Amino acid sequence: MPDSETNRRELLKLGALGGISAAVFGAGLGGCASGGRRLGPVRRVPLVAPKLDRVRIGFVGVGGMGTHHVSTLLRIEGVEIRAICDIREAHAQRAAKLVQAAGQPPPTLYTRGERDFERLCETEELDLVFTATPWEWHVPVCLVAMRNGKHAATEVPAAVTLEECWQLVETAEKFDKHCVMMENCCYDRPELMVLHMVRRGAFGEPMHAEVGYQHDLRGVKFSTEGEGLWRRAHATKRNGNLYPTHGLGPAAMAMDVNRGDRFDYLVSMAGNSRGLQLWQQERLARDDPRRSEKYVLSDVNLTLIRTVRGRTIYLVHDTNLPRPYARFNLFQGTRAIYVGYPERFYLEGRSPEHAWEPLEKFAEEFEHPLWKSEAIKQASGGHGGMDFLEDYRLIHCLRNGLPTDLNVYDAAAWSCISELTERSVASRSRAMDVPDFTRGRWQTSPPWGVVEA
Questions:
Q1: Which domains are present in the chain?
Q2: Main-chain dihedrals φ then ψ at residue 21, nearest 5 degrees
Q3: Cβ 57 vs Cβ 71: under 8 Å
Q4: Which residues fall within 8 angstroms of residue 88, CB to CB, at 6 or more apart?
Q5: What residue ranges of the chain have pLDDT lower than 70?
């Protein structure tokens, strides 16, 4: 192993133990965008895998979101769900009933504990392993899947740490497998319309985005079921943007990140932590053991990202304060601007001076083909249809031997923002370089086109 690689791994280990400052880490990697990683096996970017007549799937983690994906996938032609894994047998049985109700044979169940996904990956003849487990299990499941010859798909975020991001990239390259992070917001109607307008030149040159995740999750985090069993724990030990991809993903695609541009560096700032403490003290019984928990996650995290080509992104994470749901969403170019919640546009030379116009005025001209397709008519529920489209497009690409819309480099570049914001916050908002997970191949990778169903 090269000395630079050994040193980098040792720095990461020390950093994880708190024995080295984030400032030193930032300086140590600042001069090398790849973070000292070796170049993996040469392969075509984006990856093109052989066509699959049918996609045989093993599903790991069938709680709320996992069950939703199972239900959605069963409505897509060419999908066979062969195996289900969950630490709760009742959850696995519930998902199995959905599979059988769809007319498919009973899937094999794997319920022998939290690592039974390894047995699934080793013994089942599958094309794809899909995980919707708690965050810390996303990478272990994907790695075992790819090492056993399966493509991998994961709910967001793909990884928690920078090292995990590199593990995904290196393993996908070594075994020549797709590793896709399922970012549903990339398929929402306004985001796809903005992308279509960018591709048609309506925005001019993309310049700036303001995006984020603004969702009051206090009730979810303190629930005694589902995400409440694990998500709140992250707030006791991490302080940064823990959930960056919903807002960041669509902006990155419209800015051609990893496909002609890439993230260069970021700075991040965190304020006080109050929301979870207030909920804890005001709503939990006096004898509830959760009242003794201490939280370090700030109520609001603000991050600025600059790309190599000079585009800027303002990224917000806000999940611990009272508020209606929103995904802070602004995209700006040299000729137009879009703002979400509510959706409105201003196109220079077309819109009235200094006046917003509703999305529907531009829908006939710029509606994305996916939202005009026969496929979208199959959608029901699922965040207005974007959940169906993300699953549909994954299966479509696998069955037709096409590059997946999102790839392992996107999964890594978008997910690594979490640890980098934590390190920036811990070092008084010091700038942190974002690694180039493509190792230079972003310069020749084609942009995501206006795909159709």
A1: 55-155 (3.40.50.720), 185-443 (3.30.360.10)
A2: -75, 155
A3: no
A4: 111
A5: 1-43, 379-383
User: What is the token pair recorded at 434?
Assistant: 């974002």
Q: What is the pLDDT of residue 21?
A: 36
Q: Where does 200-328 have alpha helices with state H? A: 218-221, 231-234, 245-254, 275-283
67-79 pLDDT, tens per residue? 999 999 999 999 9
Query: What is d(CA 33, CA 300) in angstroms, rounded to the nearest whole number?
Result: 28
Radius of gyration of the chain (CA): 22
Structure tokens at 151: 């493509």
Other beta carbons less than 10 A from residue 122's beta carbon = 10
Sign of CA dihedral 214, 218, 221, 225: negative
Question: Running DSSP on this structure, what letter comes out for residue 201?
Answer: T
The dihedral through the CA atoms of 378, 246, 409, 65 has a sign that is: negative
**Preceding omega of 157 cis (within 30 degrees of 0):** yes
Say how far apart CA 212 and CA 435 lie, in whole Å. Answer: 21
Three-state SS at 20: coil
Q: In this structure, which long-range contacts are made by residues 449-452, counting pairs with CB atoms below 8 Å and at least 24 apart in sequence?
A: 449/199, 450/195, 450/196, 450/199, 450/368, 450/369, 451/369, 451/370, 451/393, 451/405, 452/369, 452/370, 452/373
Tell whether pTM > 0.85: yes
| pLDDT value of position 37 | 66
SS3 115: coil
Cβ atoms of 172 and 153 closer than 8 Å: no
